[in-house]
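Internal ticket #5521
Category: modeling
Description: The requester needs a full-assembly model to guide mutagenesis choices. All entity lines are attached below as received. Residue total reported by intake: 507.
Assigned to: D.W.
Attached entities:
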Amino acid sequence: MKLKHSLFSRRQFLNGLLGGWLAALLASFLYPVIKFVFPPTREPDQVILPFADFRQMGPNSVKTFLWGAKPGILKKKDDGSLLAFVGVCTHLDCNVSYLADQRKFFCACHDGWYDENGQNIGGPPPKPLRRLVVSIEEEDLIIKREGEERVEDL
Amino acid sequence: MKTGIQSWLDERFGLSNITKFLKEKTVPQHKHSIWYYTGSAILLFFTIQVITGFMLVFYYKPTLEGANASVARIMTEVPLGWIIRSVHSWAASFLIAFVFIHLLSTWLTKSYRKPRELTWMSGVFLLAASLAFGFTGYLLPWDDLSLSATKVGTDLPRSIPLVGAWVTKLLRGGEDVTGDTLTRFFGFHVSILPVFIFILLGVHIYLIQKHGMGLPLVAEGKKEKMREIPFWPNFVFREMVVWLLLLGILFSLAIFFPPSLDKAADLMAAAPEGIKPEWYFLFLFQTLKIFPAKILFLNGDTLAVFLMLLAGILFFFLPVMDNKPTEKKGRIITIIALVVIAYAVVMTVWSLL
Ligand code: FES
């Protein structure tokens, strides 16, 4: 069927074409800008540390290690087993410290408290400290993300 | 008499329009006139920031390895470096203090009413830019305090759905605060923010010239003609007296109380006890501290961020909402202004206890 009248004028059509073209041009300029300002950062899948460095730890003590750009905290429990955490507060990202005498993790930024297992027990932190999975393989201490461990378990 | 050079330039630039305008400009005199001086005080401190900023940039190194040491060098080795840094740091505080005063006086005298809504809105952007200058500048010495403040401040946007995590990443230059964040903040502080603030200042000052000095609501109702003084030279000379006074106070404080510099920040170290942001963020800091971990089903900090955003938006649109300042609505908004001021003061004092 042929329409008697066009649905839009030639001018509207050309304006639309021009506008669309300009928008596409703008997007093609913006895309590399946006790509550029976000550097690729990836959390490590695992870190491997020499076990020898950590063997001397006494019970109820902590040692830090590098988890990507974040501090990781390795904690030896009273029974000698090891726990690992990402050492940043779940409130607003400050680095936490372990107060061995009180058996608590403390965040100085807004007085946040966690118990010795990383459970949030006071102040603004909404979640427990993030856990990492520790395993020992011969002379290596292997620290992995929790999620991945679950995948392996399946 | 115009000299040859003057008229030569005038034919090309047409500056006589501007000088004519300034000669005819008047400033009303009434019991709230004192607030008119806050604007030029801000410009005074801004100029000082530009000049001392140019100087500091000659020695400052915006890298993880160099930042703290270069500031230490400015404080100890560079001739008069400690005074320059001290003035830059104190003038920042003065600038922000006067921005607050300027803005609150506009709010309470309701000078933002028609046709000055856009003057207010550009002012709110200027406030945001000033705070951003303060926030980015605080990191540059790269000591423990500044690191924790930056971690918290850049983590806040993360609570905003969809875009939040990207904003955090954009500000930090990655997932975490690192040396890249420092370099990026330096970029914000010395190149991006200055461009914005010059544009905003241009708009703001143009609007003020276009509409003339606003009258406080209480003065406007009066029937008799208000006393006015010429802007040039009478008002400018009075301003100069104020500037000299302020400069005296600024330099005295800068000489007797130079800012400290702690040891270089360690990205792996725990946040030091007693961390605090700059004084103008203390009320936000205290708010974050007292918000509980969970409120209903929301995280406390998420709710706090939403409230801040909402407050910012309401603040921006204040002149549109406060469009009947003489009626009941206007009086309620004045009361809200007083409550907001009281809240900020109480929170600030509390955080210092
Ligand atoms: S960042 Fe740890 S309590 Fe706020």
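Resolution: model delivered.
Comment from assignee: DSSP finds 15 helices and four strands in chain B.
Ticket closed.
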